[in-house]
């Protein structure tokens, strides 16, 4: 692993907290940290066919460099010895960070930015990168102290395999236990599988469903437990409402790992409802891992 950890900064308190976490993540992985400040502009304010815009055109570069200098100082304080590079990139923050993610091992952003409306719980950059980024995205929120287990949200979907692999690798890197939590209920997809099960069934064989969900959890975890024999794994099966159960479990975790999509999402959606709920309300940082497919 040689690709850097990247972190987007805009001078907000949330982004500076993300720098602290990103620096520690870079040190953990033994890779450089790249601090990126995207300086956006309204395209309609530039004449068509004119030269590319840069912060220097409007005398804004000193401010941008000041934001980066503050971020770099925090990075060195949080993780002494980590190699740090920084850059100002002209363009929309969403596009800039998506492009930067193509050559990164991990992207880190704060949960809120300077441009967010006061009523929003999650910034637009975080939402966009979770759905479109080319590397795993860590959104920094809640407790940021690296203590507790790595919490993996197991959904059994084909797309969730990348999240399982990432969670095991993270637990190994951190020397932390892994809690693989699979939450189910009578609305679970498995309740109506198999011939003769009508879609409008009113009675569900709870024990059969519980056994099927336990099998799904075991089959998801077993291959990776063999590849990471030194990771202590707790397989946790819980019958509950999915989002509240995962949010509650995040109280004791140092990191939540979740796939971008689950079993129940609509085909056209790039970010599932469970992933969105965790990004908005989890009690610790959340990493969203997209399928490589």
Task: Describe the model.
- This protein has 293 residues and is α/β, with parallel strands linked by helices.
- 36% of the residues lie in helices and 19% in strands.
- It has helices at 13-29, 61-78, 93-100, 124-132, 161-174, 206-227, 242-249, 273-281; strands spanning 5-8, 33-39, 84-90, 106-110, 137-140, 149-153, 178-184, 233-239, 253-259, 286-289.
- Strand 2 (33-39), helix 2 (61-78) and strand 3 (84-90) form a beta-alpha-beta unit.
- Helix 7 runs parallel beside helix 8 (273-281).
- It is elongated and about 60 Å long.
Brief sketch in words of this structure:
With 293 residues, this protein is of the alpha/beta class. It contains 8 helices and 10 strands. Strands 3-2-1-4-5-10-9-6-7-8 form a 10-stranded mixed β-sheet, sandwiched between helices.
Key phrases:
8 helices; alpha/beta
Strand neighbour order, sheet with most strands: 3-2-1-4-5-10-9-6-7-8
Number of helices: 8
Largest sheet report: 10 strands, mixed
Mean pLDDT: 82
Which structural class matches the secondary elements?
Answer: alpha/beta
Shape: elongated
Cα distance, first to last residue? Answer: 20 Å
- Report strand %: 15-25%
Question: Would you list the SSEs in sequence order as H and E?
Answer: EHEHEHEHEEHEHEHEHE
Strand tally is 10
The parts where pLDDT drops under 50 for at least 5 residues are 114-121, 190-194, 196-202, 264-270
């Amino acid at each position: 692993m040689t690709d850097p950890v990247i972190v987007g900064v805009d001078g907000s308190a949330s982004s500076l907290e993300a720098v602290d976490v990103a620096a520690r993540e870079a040190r953990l992985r033994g890779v450089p940290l790249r601090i990126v400040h995207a300086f956006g502009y309204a395209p309609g304010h530039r004449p068509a066919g004119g030269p590319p815009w840069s912060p220097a055109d409007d005398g804004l570069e000193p401010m941008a460099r000041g934001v980066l200098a503050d971020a770099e100082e925090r990075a060195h304080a949080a993780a002494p010895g980590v190699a740090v590079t920084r850059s100002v990139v002209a363009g929309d923050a969403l596009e800039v960070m998506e492009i930067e993610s193509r050559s990164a091992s991990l992207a880190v952003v704060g949960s809120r930015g300077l441009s967010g409306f006061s009523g929003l719980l999650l910034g637009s950059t975080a939402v966009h990168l979770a759905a479109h980024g080319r590397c795993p995205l860590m959104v920094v929120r809640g407790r940021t102290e690296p203590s507790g287990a790595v919490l993996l949200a197991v959904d059994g979907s084909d797309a969730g395999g990348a999240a399982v692999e990432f969670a095991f690798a993270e637990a190994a890197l951190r020397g932390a236990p892994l809690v693989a939590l699979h939450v189910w209920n009578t609305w679970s997809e498995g309740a109506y599988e198999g011939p003769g099960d009508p879609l409008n069934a009113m009675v569900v064989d709870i024990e059969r469903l519980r056994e099927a969900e336990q099998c799904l959890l075991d089959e998801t975890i077993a291959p990776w437990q063999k590849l990471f024999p030194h990771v202590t794994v707790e397989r946790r099966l819980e019958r509950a409402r999915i989002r509240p159960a995962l949010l509650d479990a995040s109280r004791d975790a140092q990191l939540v790992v979740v796939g971008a999509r689950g079993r129940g999402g609509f085909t056209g959606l790039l970010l599932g409802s469970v992933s969105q709920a965790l990004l908005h309300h989890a009690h610790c940082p959340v990493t969203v891992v997209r399928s490589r497919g």
